[in-house]
Amino acid sequence: MYTYYQAYGLSREFGSQFQTIDIADELVGKIFNNYVQVYLSLNYTYSKGQVLVDFSQLKKQYRYSTQTLNQLLATIPDGYFNILPELPYFKVRYTQYMDSSLAGYTIAKSGNDLIISNPNIDTQDFLDFCITTVDGYVMPVSLNNNQITINNGLLQAAVNEYTKVGIVSFQDAGQILIENISLSNINLSQNRSPDDLLYIQTQLPIGYATFLVLNGYLIASTTDAFYCIGNGLYALSLRKLGYHYKLLDSRDKQYYNYDYILPFLPQDLVNLYSNSNNLISNKLISTPEFISAYLTLPNTFLLQVPMTNVIIQTKNIINTELVNSFVVQNQPKELLIGSQGKIVDYFYTYRKGKYVITSPGMFSNNYIEFKNSPNNEYLSNQRVPNNPIIKSSLYFKSYGFYNFPE
After folding, report:
1. Whole-angstrom Cα distance, residue 344 to residue 338?
2. pLDDT of residue 25
């Protein structure tokens, strides 16, 4: 049998670190609510000393248990837990979000691109540790003549009436690796649809925290929509990621949108599903040809952080009567997330002991009806006439990383 000896927990507070916690008499459901990650040191009948286990192994079966941890452990059968060899390094390293102007960057136009520069930042270091967003969508970045270049950044900025460039820094966690997705990475047979699982094979090192940037949306491999199967193979569910809604909603907000993809498809296929109202064809976006083009867009790629474990912390924002603003107590360093998981670029000022966050990207389309059934011929873009735009349900998101000893 198992009995409690000690526990190490990471609370849901932003910026928190692991610490020794006493949860023996805490309700199991409450522990899951209060902590992002917990490791248990347990006495075990068949071990001379304590064994280390991951508390999350209990989540699927006991997530809402009203027992205390001690009570539950008394009922757990021998051999239930997978034993960990040793404790991880408990230093958690977090991503940080920065508005480019607040971080001291200047923005210049160059053809279809945006050039961002900061005399205090090494350009290669920037590429090694950061990604950029334009109006909330992650965009590909390169070095041209030693200049940090957001490829087609000006074309993305031209889609909207405002331009915000954000920076997501992984510097505390380590140098990021990026792999562009090509058709050779994708397991996509001719009978695939957005409802099927797709498979992406990566050449990136195995065992590290990996993200998918999908048409500008940043997605961690910790959900049932994108996850690692093993040996560098990842499963992806477009349906669970809101594929249909994203295509519809981004049509008037993104440069890399539905209309951008059409010229890359066989013309006879486009003609087959064209319509006089220029609506998005549900059948067309369900074809292997369209899905392949979508997965190989310039702002779709794999991103890896050289840490073995990733944790996600979130905190809801209470909407106020202010049109484009809200107030928080602490200096914001986290990502702000809006409709469909889109990053919301924001700017803040410090006033009377509080931080006022402002962004014109806090709103989303209020569609009358949205259905993603493949039986529907077209995606309706009709919005509520007297309330076409609504304020998104916003929340802060932070990614933290830590390692187990090798």
Report:
1. 6
2. 96
